[in-house]
Specification:
With about 625 residues, the protein is of the alpha+beta class. It is built from 15 helices and 30 strands. The protein has an eight-stranded antiparallel beta sheet, with helices on one face. Strands 3, 4, 5, 6, 11, 15 and 16 form a seven-stranded antiparallel beta sheet that branches. It is elongated, with a radius of gyration of 26 Å. The model is unreliable at about 1-25 and about 30-50 (pLDDT under 50).
Length: about 625
């Protein structure tokens, strides 16, 4: 077991027995140098079977705050959250997380007793959401992917306030709720009575569901497309709850195990990831893990790679679906979409080509069969060629970004003065991707292709060092110029560490020293995306200081690839401990570790699981 002790200046120091650390490296699978290939092959043979059995879900072991984490389930486009359409909204709302919603917080839910709204508190677990009142409980669960079921036997009713909508009755116990051109819900009372009136304040409707004489209500709200098909529901509310509980428990068994002190956080991470998956529909051709079911309910073209890695060992088919979902919508010129949901897509930007890097790790985990290599080889080739053919306007052999969004670091400081830059990490990603294409080509018997890719990788590596390594650091030069933003102190400059032993040793050593010995980058909680003393550092500045899960993972991977295991272990533990204390924010304050922006982000949960599992003892 490695030990942690707090020392002066809040620096963490680690004492790691060499045998345990070897285990750490194998579990992390962040190995890229040739001397480690034998270990990787051994790990691959184990990963093909996939098949650790992790601790299951124990009912009652997780309660979460629906102001932070939405209540939903795998496959559903519906969620419940205490986040309203404005900061002044209070209560619980049903949200639509598809790309079709206009006002997504469409239905407000309030418990009533004899027609009057009653005070309540909300308890949320993976299988059930409960309103607790002085008169008893009102329960909500899923009964199928697109059905919310409501139940109480204590005389409680429910008031539903539906914004900007109208209703079409189907019969005396069913009515359609219509919002805009797309959103459709069927409300069906199994027990209880409906009362409806207009709501002039929101230009919508109010529906009260009152209990039967015995105090029972049992009704469902179901989201549908086009028109509703006749069907039944579970025999009872309790059976619906049990089914959801069993589904989540099975998911927990395939979620990466972690040390005991992180188990509660593991359950929360598993729930966020499980509940953020939506069923195939529209542009989404596979089951897809959204980034969140708060407001970041899309998939972006690098986020999905980290989620795929977290699923690889326990759920390899779903991992492959996450990796391939953006390639399903690849443009004819080779570009991947910037982001998409089931209904809409953005092609005006792209995201960085981390896909070869991620694919290599999926290969090491045994996810990528020979058939899958055949499936991905041409799309990955086109994605690589896109950057070299369409993103090198000055024809100097160095690909370029057109906007910070293309890098994934939307407002990163390297783009503050000029968005048109040659990011050294972009070339590093592509060098890795070319080497991975060479590896796949050899496995597929395409020897001449393999030689071609290795040559292109070597050419780009030499060009990267010649052009971008300046005065002891990597810089992001402007296209067609030898200038760059000299005030930028972005963590982006350290991402070429991913190249590991491909880089000359003097470059590796200088980069590791500058990164790990400087508390302006190496904060107590992980690597800050902008140096804390930079002119561009900003509190809650997005990519100008905040700690992000993917960049943390990439930096740790780069350190291990360069053989710098001590700092890799240190950064791993700092990040894992931060998530254990503060949850799974979109990003984190580098000075306090506080969660920022979207508080239930899947790639953060995925990176936590990957790193906490790497520390498993």
């Amino acid at each position: 077991m490695f030990m942690i002790r707090q020392v002066k200046h809040h620096r963490l120091q680690f004492y790691i027995p060499s045998g345990r650390f070897v285990q750490f490296m194998i579990m992390l699978l962040l190995v890229s140098c040739a001397k480690q290939q034998k270990s990787n092959k051994q790990k691959t043979s184990l990963a093909v079977e996939s098949h650790f059995i992790a601790p299951a879900y124990t009912p009652g072991s997780l309660e979460f705050d629906v102001k932070e984490v939405p209540f939903s389930k795998k496959g559903s486009y519906m969620s419940c959250s205490s986040r309203g359409l404005t900061d002044d909204d209070e209560g619980l709302f049903i949200w639509d997380v598809s790309g079709r919603g206009e006002d997504r917080g469409i239905i407000k839910i309030e418990p009533i007793y004899h027609g009057d709204i009653v005070a309540s508190t909300i308890t949320a677990t993976p299988e059930k959401l409960t309103f607790n009142t002085e008169f008893g409980e009102l329960g909500i669960s899923f009964d199928g992917d697109q059905v919310l079921r409501f139940y109480s036997e204590h005389g409680l009713g429910v008031k539903l306030s539906v914004r900007q909508s109208y209703v079409l009755p189907r019969n005396d116990h069913q009515l359609r709720i219509i919002q805009g051109a797309f959103l459709r819900y069927m409300l069906s009372t199994l027990r209880g009575e409906m009362q409806q009136k207009e709501n002039k304040v929101t230009n919508g409707i109010i529906i009260n569901i009152e209990p039967e004489d015995n105090g029972i209500i049992d009704f469902v709200i179901e989201e549908y497309e086009s028109e509703w098909n006749e069907h039944g529901y579970s025999v009872s509310f309790s059976k619906a709850v049990e089914e959801v509980r069993n589904q989540f428990s099975e998911w927990m068994r395939t979620t990466l195990p972690v040390n005991k002190e992180y188990e509660h956080t593991r359950v929360l991470a598993a729930y966020i990831n499980w509940s953020s998956i939506v069923a195939p529909r529209g542009l989404l051709k596979r089951p897809t893990m959204l980034m969140s079911k708060n407001w970041m309910h899309r998939v972006w073209s690098w986020d999905h790679c980290f989620n795929a890695l977290a699923l690889a060992e326990g759920n390899p088919q779903l991992a492959w679906d996450q990796f391939m979902v953006m390639f399903d919508q690849q443009h004819e010129n080779g570009a991947l979409p910037d982001c998409m949901d089931d209904y809409s897509m953005i092609r005006g930007y792209v995201k960085p080509p981390v896909h070869g890097w991620a694919l290599d790790k999926l290969m090491m985990r045994g996810v990528v069969t020979k058939e899958r290599m055949k499936e991905i080889y041409e799309p990955l080739t086109r994605w690589t060629d896109f950057w070299m053919n369409y993103r090198d306007d000055d024809k100097n052999g160095m690909p370029q970004y057109h906007h910070g969004n293309d890098s994934g670091w939307d407002n990163g400081s390297v783009f503050a003065e000029n968005r048109y830059v040659e990011g050294p990490e972009l070339s590093a990603y592509l060098i890795i991707q070319m080497n991975v294409l060479a590896k796949i080509a050899r496995k597929l018997g395409r020897t001449s292709d393999a030689v071609h890719w290795d040559q292109k990788a070597n050419t780009l590596l030499n060009r990267l060092i010649d052009r971008s390594w300046v005065n002891g650091k990597f810089v992001s030069k402007y296209v067609g110029s030898d200038n760059w933003n000299k005030n930028s102190k972005s963590l982006m400059a350290f991402l070429p560490l991913l190249l590991g032993e491909r880089l000359p040793i003097e470059i590796r050593e200088k980069m590791i020293h500058d990164l790990c010995s400087d508390e302006g980058y190496a904060t107590l909680y992980g690597p800050a995306t902008e140096h804390l003393q930079s002119l561009y550092y900003k509190e809650d500045g997005y990519w100008r200081g905040a700690i992000w899960a993917p960049t943390t993972y990439l930096i740790i991977d780069g350190l291990v690839a360069c053989g710098e295991t001590h700092y890799a272990k240190e950064m791993t533990t700092r990040f894992v401990n931060m998530c254990n204390e503060n949850g799974f924010g979109e990003n984190f304050d580098p000075l306090t570790g506080t969660s920022l922006r979207d508080p239930a982000y899947t790639w953060t949960a995925s990176v936590f699981l990957l790193l906490a599992h790497a520390n498993l003892e």
